[in-house]
## 1
Amino acid sequence: MCGIVGYIGRKDAKDILLHGLEKLEYRGYDSAGIYVQNKAHEGYLFKEKGRIAALREKVDASVEATAGIGHTRWATHGAPSVRNAHPHQSFSERFTIVHNGVIENYQEVKDAYLGDIDLKSDTDTEIIVQLIAWFVEEEDLAPIDAFKKAIVALEGSYAIALMDSENPDVIFAAKNKSPLLLGKGDGFNVICSDAMAMIKETDQFVELMDKEVATVTRESLVIENYSGDIIDRNAYTAEIDSDDLEKGTYPYYMLKEIDEQPAVMRKLLLKYQDENGKLTVDQEIVDTMLESDRIYIIAAGTSYHAGLVGKQLIESMTHIPTEVHVSSEFGYHTPLLSEKPFFIFISQSGETADSRQVLVKTNALGHPSLTVTNVSGSTLSRESNFTLLLNAGPEIAVASTKAYTAQIAVLAILSEVVGISKGLIKKGTMLHDIGIVANAMQAIVDDKEKIEELAADYLSISRNAFYIGRGMDYHVALEAALKLKEISYIQTEGFAAGELKHGTIALIEEGTPVIALVTEKGVAGHTRGNLQETQARGAHTMVISMDGLNRPGDQIVIPHVNPLLSALVSVIPTQLLSYYCSLHRGNDVDKPRNLAKSVTVE
Ligand code: AGP
C-alpha cells in the first residue's frame, strides 16, 4: 500500500528517493511522485501514473537538490491519476506533503476550515496540506505548530512527511496507525515506510510511534508527542541483507521466493533449536499458552489460511481449543470470548491494519497476545506481548508463498513445544519431520518444468477454476485458489470437496479445471469420488496426491511427509501452477493489479 520516503543530506535527493520508491514497489501502488527542493528555496515536483520507471523518465535529471520527499500511492479516495498522485501542495505551493493512510473526517475538516473552495485533487490527503497552509496564513502559526494543530484535527490513519519551501533545511513527519521509520546517517537523515527503502543509505532506524511528531534535519532527529514532550528513543539496527532484496537471475521475485522455501524450513529449524539440538520457544510464551483455555488466531488473506492449518496443528498437539478468525470481521463482530483467551496474530508484514485494530482492542481488554511475523519491529510485533519471527527473509512478491509455509512451520514448532510441556507428546518429531518437508519441497521445485506444462494445459484459457479437498487439503485448497486468482485473474474457488454437490457443482461446464488435493488417508477416497462427480459433468480434472495415496494417472505426486505437515508440501505445486499461469498470460506476476503487499488501511 502507499509508501513514503524522505531524505535530507548532501547527496542528490532525487536519486535516493527514486531508488527508495523502487524498493517500496512491492507494497503495491498505482502512481508515484517526488518533490525535491534546494537551499535556494526552489522546489521541483514530479508525478506520474503507473510505474516508478515512468516517473524516472519524467524527472528532470539536471535538477540539483539535497532534500525531498517521495510517495507511491495506492488509490483510496480518487482514481489513480497524476492529479491525485502525491506529493500534494498548498495553493501557494509553499507546503508539500505525502501521506499514507485514510483521513476519515476529511469532509468535516474541509467544511470547518476551508469552506467550499475547489481543491486541486480528489484525495483526502490534500485537505491536510491546505489546512496547514491555512493555519500559517490565517492564524499566523509557525509551520511546526500549524502542522501539529492540523494533525490533531484529523481522525483516521496517517503517516505524513511535510516540506516547507521557506525552510528547506527541515522535513516534518507524524504518524498515527500507519507505519513510519526515521533513519539516522552521518550528515543526513531519512524517512521511510519500510527500512528496505533506505537500507542502502543506513541500517540505523528509530521508530516513530502513534501520535508523535518528528523534526528531521541533516544533523538531527527530534521526536516529540502532541503535548510537546521530547522523546528520547534509541535507534535499532535493521537486519536486512541488501542482497536479499535483489531478484538475481530470477525473472520474478515470486519464483525466487517459491524456490527459497526448502532453505527457509532449514533456517527455521536452526533458529528454533537450543544448544542441545532440541526445538525450543521462549518459555514465557509456552507458559502463557498453557494457562489459556482457548486460542484465537487472527489474520487476513494467506496468513488466515496459514491460521486454519495452525488450528489443526495446535489442537492436535496441545489439545487447546482454537478458533481462527478473519481480522476485518473479528474486531467489529467479536464473538463471546472464553475466560482466559490467548491471541495469536499471524501477519507476514506485521502491519496489516485489519489485524492491528483487533490487537488494539485485545490489548485494551488485557488479553495476552503473540505475533507470528516476518518483520521484526513491525507494528503488530511491537504491540503484542510476544513475537515469533519467520526468518524467511524479505518477501517482495505480492503473492505470499514462503511466508505462508514459514508461518505453518513456526506454528508446528510452537505446538510441539507446548505439547511436550503439557506432557501430551513424549518425544518430539518436528525437527526431523520439517527436515523431511524441506527435502520434499526441494524435489518439487527441482521438477517445476512438469508443473509449467500442466499450467499451460489446464489453465491457459479457462475463465474459472476450482481447487477441492477435505480437512487439511481443504485449507490448502483455499490458499491455492487465492494464489491463482490474485495473480492470474482467473475466478477460482477453494471448496470443501463434499460441499460442491450442495450447489456449486452447477458451475461445472465442459473443460472447467477442477484440481483435487489428496493427502489425507481417511478422506482420500471421498475426495476422489467428488472429483469424479465433476469429471462426469465435463470438468478437466487434476489430482495432486501424496506418495502412498497416489493412483495411476495422478498428475502430481508429492513425496510422503508427516500428514500433519502435508500443507507445507502440497501447496508448492499450487504456487507454481499460479506462477506459470500468470506468466503465460503475460501478467505482472509480482505486482498484480489492484493489490498491495502491505495493507495498511482497514
Ligand atoms: C496473499 O498472497 C496476499 N498477499 C494477502 O492475502 C496477504 O496474505 C494479506 O494481505 C495479509 O497480509 P499479512 O500477512 O502481511 O498480514
## 2
Amino acid sequence: METPVPPVAVTTRTALGKEPIHRKSADFRLEPDSIRESGFLFGAPLMTLHDKFGRQITDLRISVTDRCNFRCVYCRSADPENYREHEQILSWPELERLARIFVDLGIQKIRITGGEPLVREGAEGYIRKLRELGVPDISMTTNGHLLAQRLPSLIAAGLHRINISLDSLDPIKFEKITRTRTYDSVMRGIDAVQNSALAPAKINAVLVRGFNEDEVEAFGAFARDRGVIMRFIEFMPLDADRHWSRELMVPAEEVHRRIHAQWPLVQIPHAKSETARKYKFANGAPGEIGLIAPVTQPFCGHCSRIRLTADGKVRTCLFSKDDHDLRALLRNGASDHDIEERIRAVVDEKEAGHRINEPGFQPPSRTMVFIGG
Ligand code: SAM
C-alpha cells in the first residue's frame, strides 16, 4: 500500500527532529463562495450545515490515510509511530458513502489529504466518485513525491486544485526537514503541475526557525521566477514531538515585511472564509504570495471547515479536544439519516476558536498526521 522513498540518515541542530534516523521512511467549476452566497445550486435550495455561532460549514477535509512517506520535523516524529491497522481505516466505499452524506448536507469543497494521500492506492477512483456526486470543488494536498506520474490520472479523474508542500529550495535542507531524499521528485511534481491545467501550482511552506526561516526571500524569488502561488503557513502546535514553541514559529507579519522590502506587494481581495491573505507583486511580476497565520492572526470567526480523519472521526477544529466517531455508525447499520443527525449535532457544537494564544493552552490529542491537514 505504501510506496517507499529512499532512506536518509539525518542529525539536526535544534530540538526539532534532533534524532538521527535510518529508516525507510475541470474544466467546469462553480465558484463555491458564490454558491454559498446564493444558497441555490441548479435552482434547488441547498441543505446547509451551521454551527451554533451561525457559521456555515461548506468545506470538508478528508484524510484518506494516516500513513506518510515523509517524516517532516514539524509534523511527525523520527521515532516509529503507531499507524492504525488497515481495518481501522475507512474503506473507499465507506468514504464514498460519507462523502455523499456530507454533500447532501451542503458541503461544497472537499480536500483529500492525509498522511500522504498518494500512498493509498485508489485516490483517482475516489475523486471520480466525488465528481459524480457533483462536488463543485475537489482538491488535494500532497507532498509531491509521487505526483509527477500520478497527475494525469488525477486530473482525468476530476481533480480541480492541488497544493504541494515544499519547505526548502535547498536539497540538503529539504532532507533535514522531510528526513527523505526526495527533493528532485517533488520538483518534478511541481513542474508537472506547472505544465498542466492545474497551473499555477500552490506551494505550501511551513517555516521553522533554525531550519528554513532564512529562505523567505528565496521562496519569494521562486514565486516570481516560476509563476507559482507561494503560501507560508505558520508553524502550529500539532507536531508529534511536541517541540512547538512560539520562538520556533515565524510570524506571517515577518514574512510579509521581508518579501515586501524586496518586492513591494499589493493585497488581493479574498473570501472571508479563506485561510490565506493573498498578495501579488506590485511590479506585475508573475506569481503570488499567500500568508496563513492561524497563530498570530486567527481566522476562526469565519471558519467554514470540518475534518474527517482516516479512521472515521469528525473533528470540528484542528485543535479539538474530542473526536466524533462515524465509523461505528457506519459499521453498525446506521441509516443515512442517523449519520446526518449525528453530523448536524457535532457541527452545532463546533468550537468558537482555537485557544493557542490563551494561557494554559493544551495541544490536541491528535497530531497533524493523524488529523489530516
Ligand atoms: N502529506 C501531505 C502534505 O505533505 O502536504 C498532506 C498532509 S500534511 C499533514 C498537510 C499540510 O499540513 C502540509 O502543508 C504541512 O506542511 C502542514 N503541516 C503539518 N504539520 C504542521 C504544523 N505543525 N504546523 C503547520 N502546518 C503543518
